[in-house]
Amino acid sequence: MTEALQPVTKSESLKPPHIVVFPFPAQGHLLPLLDLTHQLCLRGVNVSVIVTPGNLTYLSPLLSAHPSSVTSVVFPFPPHPSLSPGVENVKDVGNSGNLPIMASLRQLREPIIHWFRSHPNPPVALISDFFLGWTHDLCNQIGIPRFAFFSISFFLVSVIQFCFENIDQIKSTDPIHLLDLPRAPIFKEKHLPSVVRRCLQTPSPDLAAIKDFSMNLLSYGSVFNSSECLEGEHMEYLKQRMVHDRLFVIGPLCSIGSGLNSDSGSIDPNLLTWLDGSPNGSVLYVCFGSQKALTKDQCDALALGLEKSMTRFVWVVKKDPIPDGFEDQVSGRGIVVRGWVSQLAVLRHVAVGGFLSHCGWNSVLEGLTSGAVILGWPMEADQFVNAKLLVEHLGVAVRVCEGGETVPNPVELGRVIAGTMGEGGREVAAKAEEIRRKTEAETEANGSSIEDLQRLVTEFGKL
Ligand SMILES: O=c1ccn([C@@H]2O[C@H](COP(=O)(O)OP(=O)(O)O[C@H]3O[C@H](CO)[C@@H](O)[C@H](O)[C@H]3O)[C@@H](O)[C@H]2O)c(=O)[nH]1
């Protein structure tokens, strides 16, 4: 017996698509994916966000902005022998937390399947971080498409992909020539992305890591928080290597209107008053992302360098040991903030003209879209690759130091800071301003990023 087809009612056909978002719990990954989620909700998508209890707090702005279209799906954090109880975010332990947290989250596979199968209106698609490559298989199992979210550059993905495809060849050389890539870049082994270095340093390649990464490019679609004007060549290079044409270049996400984090009202009132009283473009903002704390020697050198530069500055520190008496010595000219600031809001303040940064990809995008000149000190992970893009390809930054353990020469550091924040930085500041204008155009109403965002929403509507 055949069932009579029920006509689709108007309200059913207009039902907003429901998707599930699975961020990786590191601020550099989580925050941009929540930004993307916010933009999707603004365009009528309903979203369930997978999270563990210790990370629920980071969803608050999103939940407040979209009380009826965002739902948190909270799973207990699966324990791992090398993580202390309570650690659920890389921010709590630093870069070494990536691998154990990745391993822990893999154990959520069965609970997610169970949640999906018992949901009255299951999601039509998953967007998950590129550190969660295993969700490609999960999606195959439950029969929905997976979109990989890249909180990193096209250039970085090209470098990793090339290295993994040529792992035996690059194992025996240093420096490494990536001849296949646009501009044929050369990297010292110690400046390759951490994920590649880990594979090179083990006696046999870490096949699990390689497989996990390659799952990303096999997924149904890819979303990049990047931009054609920053790295069009690498975007084209990767497009040729993707098995599909569902590439959505939606960036810089931090510049897309009505964002979650750009409001200067989120700056601490004391800091805001101080910034308001500083001349335009005079302040150097110093922050090395959400994970890295400097050693005592590094702090001493940086403090002395800042002192010698005679530049106004805001230095955001975590557990970094700031030298005794430093804050009094620089009182009025510099401020040390302990903990967390709303970085984007600070960078957007008219008083900020420079950004001493580790070149994490989000910091890069936030700095560039604010028109700040970046003074790069790449330390680990993708940061050397990003610094090469900024300094050598785009000419919008200067390198002030290199390496996670390196102690800079304070005199030289002070000289470069003073020069770059002054007359000597004019050329690079003009290029930074040109890039700021280009990224702004991409994120305006008819810009390519907004078109791709709308294309993604349309794609969900078709599933
Ligand atoms: O006081 C702070 C410190 C950080 N942030 C924000 O935290 C994010 C930090 O991200 P990022 O600049 O990318 O640095 P990490 O936290 O170090 O991010 C990791 O993840 C990134 C994305 O994969 C990589 O590019 C980095 O190298 C890697 O260290 C940015 O959005 C910042 O605005 C704040 O808002 N306030």
TrEMBL record:
Q: Which InterPro entries match?
A: UDP_glucos_trans
- Membrane-spanning regions, if any? none
The GO terms describing molecular function are: UDP-glucosyltransferase activity
Q: Which keywords label this protein?
A: Glycosyltransferase, Transferase
Q: Which domain of life is it from?
A: Eukaryota
**Family membership noted in the UniProt record:** Belongs to the UDP-glycosyltransferase family.
Protein name, as recorded: UDP-glycosyltransferase 89A2
Which organism is the protein's source? Cardamine amara subsp. amara
